[in-house]
Design brief:
CATH topology: Rossmann fold
CATH architecture: 3-Layer(aba) Sandwich
Radius of gyration: 17 Å
Shape: globular
Structural class: alpha/beta
Bound molecules: nicotinamide-adenine-dinucleotide
Mean pLDDT: 96
């Protein structure tokens, strides 16, 4: 039986999709048939990614946006609607992580400015994106929001407490928003990736660090961005239409919650 609540295949906005794991999400969702909006601080990177998707036969739009700035977020969503009409999905992937780097410092050595930036981008940016996109989804009675947390929010981590705190916030945010917007047909889910080799030109040090995270995994190998693509595809697709408020850990069986 076809799912009558499923809207036409509208665009998916992916924040932070110019690099790393977001770029792999864009590849997968484009090959699933969705028009993709690449939203990133890095304008040249976003354009290059959108051009690559178009060269592969997809539909894509690049928009330079800082998700921590409300005016950028509104302009991004307006551009997406102007180009593609309907927005089916939003993947809140952008974060202060490695392209915009964080210090992996002990809790008492993190500066106030970096703490505030972390919360402004990872948490407030995610909230602002949802506020701007949800009314468009509500108009269609259908939408898919995927937030990105981290396995560190479930397990803890012996450094970078500001990052882990922001990613723990995403877990409660996901559940609360799912309850608030369910009546509008909007599903809100979350992916918690394990330590992933997401650097484009990974150094020996990056590779050694990722290898050091393998030990406690049931599936003992380095995690790659593509390992996360199936989860995002499922949460954006109609296959997950009766799933909301959930967090799926994708880490090769390190954190089993
Ligand atoms: N790589 C990992 O090991 C890992 C593990 C768990 C969770 N995650 C999460 O997965 C997501 C992607 O991680 P990644 O490794 O690809 O990170 P990354 O640093 O490689 O990429 C993040 C992207 O977000 C963009 N960005 C940063 N700040 C922005 C802002 N204010 N506005 C718009 N764009 C902005 C960057 O330009 C970059 O393209 C992040 O949310 C991260 O916290 C990563």
């Amino acid at each position: 039986m076809s799912n009558t609540t499923t809207a036409e295949r509208g665009a998916v906005i992916i924040t932070g999709a110019a690099h790393g794991i977001g770029s792999a999400y864009a590849d997968r969702l484009s090959s699933d048939g969705y028009p993709i909006v690449i939203a990133d601080l890095d304008e040249a990177g976003a354009k290059a990614k959108a051009e690559a998707l178009i060269a592969d036969g997809g539909r894509a739009l690049a928009v330079r946006a800082d998700i921590s700035k409300e005016e950028d977020v509104q302009a991004l969503v307006d551009a997406a609607v102007a180009e593609f009409g309907t927005i089916t999905g939003l993947v809140n992937n952008a974060a202060v992580f490695s392209v915009v780097p964080m210090s992996r410092a002990p809790y008492d050595e993190i500066g106030l400015d970096e703490w505030d930036l972390m919360m402004r981008v990872n948490l407030r940016g995610t909230w602002q994106m949802c506020k701007a996109v949800a009314p468009h989804m509500a108009k269609n009675g259908y939408g898919k929001i995927v937030n990105i947390s981290s396995g560190t929010a479930l397990k803890g981590s012996a450094s970078r407490i500001h990052y882990v705190t922001s990613k723990a916030g995403i877990l409660g945010f996901t559940k609360t928003l799912a309850r608030e917007v369910g009546a509008d047909g909007i599903r809100v889910n979350c992916i918690a990736p394990g330590s992933t080799l997401s650097e484009e030109n990974a150094s020996e040090k990056d590779i050694e660090y990722r290898k050091s995270r393998v030990g406690d995994r049931a599936l003992g190998r380095v995690q790659m961005p593509e390992d996360l693509s199936g989860a995002v595809s499922f949460f954006i697709s109609p296959d997950s239409d009766f799933v909301t408020g959930q967090t799926l850990v994708v880490d090769g069986g390190s954190c089993m919650h």
